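Hi W., the pyroglutamic acid complex you wanted:
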Amino acid sequence: MNALLFVYGTLKKGCRNHAHLADQTFVGAARSIPGFGLFDLGSYPGIVADPQDSAGVIGEVWSVSYQCLEELDAFEGVHRGFYRRAALPLVPPFADQKIEAYIYALSIAGRRRLGPEWKN
Ligand code: PCA
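Structure:
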């Protein structure tokens, strides 16, 4: 069994933590609906719900095994409340599919807003 995961930061192809997805299956380039913004958390980004956003966030959809997902949850700090893995609405061709992403779970006060696409 596999899950669909939207990645938008260091897990993307060519980015520094992509090795975690090395054995998984790339599905396609994707974008969230507007209303989600990308913020600079240091050397990686975080998505939060952001009413000011009109562009959405650009990333990649991957089909990942549940074992991989569990490992990613640990890696991304889900258990310590850093990100939460939650459904993120995407635009077509991924609209109406249940696709999850790591949503930043802490405050973005003082964090810099990024454009729609995170670059290494
Ligand atoms: N890693 C996850 C969340 C942010 C990050 O840098 C990702 O690439 O989707």
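The pocket of pyroglutamic acid is lined by residues 7-12, 44-45, 76, 102 (CB under 6 Å).

W.
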